[in-house]
Amino acid sequence: MTAQQGWAAPGHADRYRERVLAERDRLTEALTDLRGRQQDVLTDLLGFNAGTEFGRRHDFDRIRHVDDFRKAVPVQDYAAHAPLIERTAEGEPNLLSADRPVVYFTSSGSTGAHKKIPVTPRFMRTTFFPFYYAAWAPLIEHFPDVTHRPDAVLNLKHDPLAAPPTTADGHPHVGASQVDFGEKFGEPLSAELGTGAPWATLPVDVAPDDHLEKMYLRLRLAVQSDVRCLIGINPAMIAAVPYQLSLWWERIVREVRDGTLGGVPHGSPDPARAAELQRLADYFGTVTPAHVWPNIRALFGWTTGVASLYLPALRERYGTGVTALPAPVAASEGPVGVPLDRHGTAGSLVATASVYEFADADADLTPDTPTLLPHELEAGREYHVIFSHVGGLYRYAVGDVVRVVDLPGGVPRVEYAGRANRSDAAGERLRESQVVRALRTALTATGTQLVNVACRVEHTPGAPAPHYVFAVAPSTPWQETEAARFTALLDDALGRESADYRRTRAEHRLSAPALRLLDAEAFHRDWHTAVGSGIRPTQVKDRLFRQDDALWRRLTGPATP
């Protein structure tokens, strides 16, 4: 049964809701005994994988507790796991997991290189599906109308492939949003909201890597539906929709009127809807999602990091009172936190998914880095995330930093704070979260808003020291006095966020930052250019630090027709 058939079947929405809320309740119950559940996860992964090459190498059969585990296994990143992953992808069994992978998730990571994340049936059953279902609970509990019709949700990340690329062992190597979990793992309720919509599987031929055309075709179809919710996960995809409506508006209206899709006859001509859409454009000048879909109530995606700076203005373009619900704190390699209520940014640890360890975010991770367990974390602090699960990743440093928002019942609730990479030209060691907080401070103090922001270090010939340049696309034009005050406030806030930055400025190893104001659509054009090059939209994420010269020129250069 396809996703479209499933969501159209009688009673499907009720069964889906029941499963989602049941998984949420089970994860909530597990948090009442966090230490016990973490021990259960450790015992299970050790016992199941003791006979693997990795398990034998690290004496899994002798490990009983997490302290033993930390002594036996070093902290590792993807590169350390890669040799066994590559051998697994060539068909060799029993290396990292006793279970054979069925699919490999792809992840671009911070370098852009495509990882292969082995995905086994046991990992899906014990680690993935519980958090995956529970993640939708706040949405369907508080916005139940999103399940009433298959076309009530525009799922921007859903992108099935008829012929996915495969690894040497013949298994698909794709993004998680491109996997049919019902077919691969026997989960008939796993199809996401919006995957039953008429645009979920495009009815016309389009090249698999022509992502912009696929996005156009889905928007073209969606303007004829009463969309109530958008799912993006990557917030840059949600931010792109208002720009895309404007960019493609004339073509959309023409195809609705003529009954075509990508120039091919599809459905019936709808001159009444086309006329209505054109009236909106004539009246408002610039059409927003709120005009096209006046009943939108929720956006689902990451709400922290750089997105936290532009979401307030972006939500206005989707309508008054629209709620932004946070997606899970997770990576292709595994989950970390899942929102179990309507908190705007944070989720509770998924106690049954992985063994979680943490290290201070300012520390440089090494194989023997001391780690903290969940009950040792402090509210307001930021940490590297390290996890281990039955799918075959052990003491895996995923490359993300989280912030502990609070500790309800002694259980950490975390939000994504940014990638673990730093910008460090002169010893300032700036992390993404520090820069985002400094930017927020300057925006709040000046009353300004932005569409997006990026920065890099520049070395001006003849200048005594390098300096940061912040490329900002304002939501509305900034006055010169506002821009100057913003830049000064930003410099001061960076010094308060980072002692290393403050010291390098005092020692004149860094000069004062500079501001480069771009037009409001600069980041959208840059995003479209990246997607147009063949990169999947889910992987073209907000990047605060942009040191690559060519990419910086692409972002900050003049608009091309």
**Shape designation:** globular
Q: Strands across the major sheet, in which order?
A: 10-11-12-16-15-14-13
Number of helices: 20
Helix fraction bin: 25-40%
In terms of DSSP E residues, the strand content is 15-25%
Low-pLDDT regions: none
Measured distance between first and last alpha carbons:
45 Å
Q: What's the structural blueprint in terms of helices and strands?
A:
Elements: H1 3-8, H2 12-30, H3 34-49, H4 53-57, H5 66-72, H6 78-89, E1 103-107, E2 115-119, H7 121-134, H8 137-142, E3 153-155, E4 173-174, H9 181-185, H10 211-222, E5 229-233, H11 235-247, H12 249-258, E6 260-261, E7 264-265, H13 271-284, H14 289-292, E8 298-301, H15 307-318, E9 323-326, E10 329-331, E11 334-338, E12 347-349, E13 355-360, E14 382-389, E15 393-406, E16 413-419, E17 422-423, E18 430-431, H16 432-446, E19 450-458, E20 467-474, H17 480-497, H18 499-506, E21 514-517, H19 522-532, H20 549-556
Parallel strand pairs: 1-4, 3-5, 5-8, 8-9, 20-21
Antiparallel strand pairs: 1-2, 6-7, 10-11, 11-12, 12-16, 13-14, 14-15, 15-16, 17-18, 19-20
Helix pairs in contact: 2-7, 10-12, 11-15, 12-13, 16-17, 17-18
Q: Which features does this protein show?
A:
four-stranded parallel beta sheet, 20 helices, alpha/beta, globular, single chain, 561 residues
Could you write a compact summary of the structure shown?
With 561 residues, the protein is of the alpha/beta class.
